[in-house]
């Protein structure tokens, strides 16, 4: 097992490392910012990479925001970025449904467990959907609903896909309806399956948690279109046409970001220690997911 | 692997089988009834067993009902039973918390994810609790809640246990609060972890599903006080003081009821085919969970 190289403060090492890549895929939360707090020297570091002609892609599992929402967040924090550089798990799922799954209309409707980011990206790909933020589904289950779910009266016969993402409005009614669609043969997808969401300096339930009730009921996991699923890597590559051997994944989570880069056979991976994973996780003997290199903070790449 | 003996229509076989036991533990849903439909000859069969001096215990994983609620259901369906004969997973959990876990007051408060059945049984054992059916927790999470969960303002410092049961009002707020209690060291229990709930001739999310978001977030399963957990068998035995070798578990689900009896080293198990599991499940070669005997319906025991 090769050791991860520590680059903070190593000017020559950084220069050599950067020279090996043309494309950098960035995780956002935990790398560029934490919540609404931007890390030191992030804009300068991204500008520096651009000045070296590196292509930047922001790959995020957060399904509650669309690419347009993300652009607003970049603007607000003063981070230079273009909408086209953002690749979120909602977009990844919409692209998968529209361009790869391609169920024949009208049986191609999606039942959404999630927030507006998913709806916006499905709209952008012309995919019909129900559920999501529709207030009709944001209510308690009532006794008569059990019969009407069982006999199909509460169901749309054109639903062919259930898409599960982070849902701050998850409830029993939606889970029961989605479960019924799956029992009737709908394709089971997720934007991502992160178990937790780092917020307010602690952990909250992530998309894998808000969707876990459905997975438990049906007894299997969805196909995830977010990191570390290679379905997302394929979608990113399809859009940006990069050379994997000249591409580096930058992230804070070993089991999603770094695994994503390793499984995708990228030329390299770079861990930052501003997020979830601690260096002890990958410096120990026998650990499987080891980044090629690591820095304390992204800004350390400025040397 | 011994074969399961088919008893329906086998008068001599039934007589021999019944003579081997003094106590019968019954699962309810799928054995005595399905929803509000009572199966043929159930009252007569139970009366017959009582006439043979058998002790009957009704062991149910349904946590939404208290023992008193269950008694009402028995009465309504015309099934003779006493409250003392009912042993539900909510009661099992309340007994475990009050008599085995025995956390020192005031740090013994329970945060409940579930319905009134759990609250009633906690009351019956004098266990303090919050959450449950309290309308204050039956709402959407708001932006400020994230901070107030993280900084503890929305938390009760006396909570030492999170108890998860079937919750028709599960939501992100409650899961996030429970997750925070667990991150702070609360004991993690469940009334039961059945993945599905058979209703209206199809499957709905069960307690294991409505609580799966929390298990996924914290990355481990709760200690279950329902079937097939032996914590429940110990509690039943503690109350009824039976001889396990002279006790038979009767149920419709291989992976909960029959497993419960086998793991508990009972003298025997009897499967009925009126519920979830089909006989193909245990008649196949190489299957691990095989009941000692099976009948098509409970009423077949009348011969």
TrEMBL record, chains A, B:
<feature type="active site" description="Proton donor">
    <location>
        <position position="27"/>
    </location>
</feature>
<feature type="binding site">
    <location>
        <position position="252"/>
    </location>
    <ligand>
        <name>Mg(2+)</name>
    </ligand>
</feature>
<feature type="active site" description="Proton donor">
    <location>
        <position position="29"/>
    </location>
</feature>
<dbReference type="GO" id="GO:0008967">
    <property type="term" value="F:phosphoglycolate phosphatase activity"/>
</dbReference>
<keyword id="KW-0460">Magnesium</keyword>
<keyword id="KW-0378">Hydrolase</keyword>
<dbReference type="GO" id="GO:0004035">
    <property type="term" value="F:alkaline phosphatase activity"/>
</dbReference>
<dbReference type="InterPro" id="IPR006357">
    <property type="entry name" value="HAD-SF_hydro_IIA"/>
</dbReference>
<dbReference type="GO" id="GO:0046872">
    <property type="term" value="F:metal ion binding"/>
</dbReference>
<dbReference type="InterPro" id="IPR023214">
    <property type="entry name" value="HAD_sf"/>
</dbReference>
<feature type="binding site">
    <location>
        <position position="27"/>
    </location>
    <ligand>
        <name>Mg(2+)</name>
    </ligand>
</feature>
<feature type="binding site">
    <location>
        <position position="227"/>
    </location>
    <ligand>
        <name>substrate</name>
    </ligand>
</feature>
<protein>
    <recommendedName>
        <fullName>4-nitrophenylphosphatase</fullName>
        <ecNumber>3.1.3.41</ecNumber>
    </recommendedName>
</protein>
<keyword id="KW-0479">Metal-binding</keyword>
<dbReference type="InterPro" id="IPR036412">
    <property type="entry name" value="HAD-like_sf"/>
</dbReference>
<dbReference type="GO" id="GO:0005737">
    <property type="term" value="C:cytoplasm"/>
</dbReference>
<feature type="binding site">
    <location>
        <position position="29"/>
    </location>
    <ligand>
        <name>Mg(2+)</name>
    </ligand>
</feature>
<dbReference type="InterPro" id="IPR006349">
    <property type="entry name" value="PGP_euk"/>
</dbReference>
<dbReference type="Pfam" id="PF13242">
    <property type="entry name" value="Hydrolase_like"/>
</dbReference>
<dbReference type="Pfam" id="PF13344">
    <property type="entry name" value="Hydrolase_6"/>
</dbReference>
